[in-house]
Amino acid sequence: MKKSAGYILRFSAERQQVFDDRFDEGKFAEAVPEFEHSRNVPLVCFVVSREGNLTHICLGSRGRLAGTDLRRLNMGSFFTVKPPIPANKIISRVSNRSKSRVEARLSYGGLLSPKAFEEVISAVSDLSPESAPILAKYREERRTRIATLPGEILHSLAEQKEAVGTALGIAGIDRNEISGWDYSVESGPVSFIAGLPKVRLREDQMVANDLKEFPGHEEVQSYVHGSTVFENTQSRLTVILANRLPLEEQTGTDLIYYNETFQCFLMVQYKAMEHENGEAVFRFPNSQLTEEIRRMDALLTQLGAANSNTEADGFRLSENPFFLKICPRLVFNPDNIGLSVGMYLPLDYWKLISMHPDTVGPKGGKRLSYKNVRRYFGNTEFINIASGGWVGTNIHQSSILRDVIRSTLESGRAAVIAVNEELDDRHRRQDDDGS
Length: 435
Description:
The protein is α+β, with helices and mostly antiparallel strands. It has 13 helices and 16 strands. The protein has two domains: about 5-145, Roll (ph1033 like fold); about 150-435, no CATH class. Strand 10 and strand 11 form a beta hairpin. About 40% of the residues are buried.
């Protein structure tokens, strides 16, 4: 499991002045010596002034090349440490084993080792109690506590996290919003959404009121177990988690994504591959998948009875809203904001693949792998077609969404319901704004 890491940035006098002048912009980039770090995992930056005081804590990311052996360090979400902490006070609180390494980083900057990062977090939290809640989500104690949750709970959380991350990708919102998940020790884990620290959490009833125009909102209100709103300059994404069963009893998660602009919805259901002889394999048929496809087919029959599309905004490359994502078994890592690799398969395509002779194994069983699926959508391709409303129900068919939600909840699965409202005018017709 990839872990968050720490980086110390020590300013020169000249760059300190530039940073101070631009601080109100809320973001800053600095050219630093080349370093390695995954962009999908949090990087906690400790900003040290030219006088040798820790003045700010922020989130960073490894950016583009900035010259020979140089890399941009992009920073944002700044927390101001008041009063600033002298570097020697931090050094005095770390172990003798880490002291020389921490002292070198505080003097010259650079990536901290995992052990040194943990000790710096502890020292800064003690010296600046206001920073402790911010740094707590990156401590080893939290990672260990989450990792020891029962397997059924971790699997449900992993599917919910994947669904929320996919919805953010379709809406064009930064997935950094979902880093740092944790749960209350007193109440235990409730849902992935309920444990998010950074997002603007709202009362469930407030979100339900916002969704009154959303087809199927009445099916959701009694089963909400976490809700929030993500927003940038282009999109406002309302996400709710609805389920009838506790985490450990859920049979899976469905992502139900509704595009308000084009009035269409699509649904993604996740299926886990297992490792066999060095490759990822999905074996079928199984009774659960057979029943779930039966439910989808029944809903497709209802969709077919709706009026055909007559509007430009209702045009779809495919009006079948159902997709399977076949992927290696999801592992819950709350600090990794990346999406899992996998194959998005439209339901109609799945039916053809599942009958193909290439899926029959040497002993007569059926199996799906990267070797016998010629074509599929990856994360980028799927997000591209979904974000533009090119696939999913047409305008007249979207009224059936309440039946889709009901079907998911009755099956024991959780529903991550994401409703995207575009805030800019990229796709608005002229009569939408009165002109």
